[in-house]
Amino acid sequence: MVAVDREENCTSKCLETCPPCQAYSYVPPLTQRTLNPSTCWIWTQNLTTVKENYTDGDDHRRLFVLVDKSDI
Predict the structure, then answer these.
(1) CA atoms of 49 and 32, how far apart (whole Å)
(2) Is the pTM of this model over 0.85?
(3) Helix, strand, coil % in the chain, rounded to nearest 5
(4) CA 71 remoteness from chain centre
(5) Where is the Apple domain (predicted)?
(6) Taking a C-beta distance cutoff of 8 angstroms, is the pair 14, 21 a contact?
(7) Own/partner pairs for 55-62, CB < 8 Å, 24+ apart?
(8) Considering just the CA atoms, what is the radius of gyration of the chain in Å?
């Protein structure tokens, strides 16, 4: 988990990660007035079980999975 200020910075942190980033998820602060920073989760190991359309309460977190072009 990494503190970031914008979703673009979460993407950058993922791409800079070694071993290679497999996926990332960005969650903004709960409110604009909170002192808590945004959160960036980064996965560096294989994702073995991913659920489609998973939501956690009302925040609707998104999971971005990186794949090789040859796998598409």
Answers:
(1) 33
(2) no
(3) 20, 20, 60
(4) 20
(5) 1-65
(6) yes
(7) 59/27, 59/30, 61/25, 61/27, 62/25, 62/26
(8) 13
Cα separation, 25 vs 41, in Å, equals 5
Give the closest residue to 28 by CA, choosing from 37, 42, 36, 38: 38
pLDDT the model gives residue 13: 92
**Cβ–Cβ < 8 Å for 38, 28:** yes
Q: Where are the domains of the chain?
A: 2-50+59-71
pLDDT of residue 34 exceeding 60, the answer is: no
CA 8, CA 26: separation in Å to the nearest integer?
9
Tokens of 68: 């090789």
Q: What is the pLDDT of residues 1-25, one digit of tens each?
A: 888 888 899 999 999 988 889 999 9
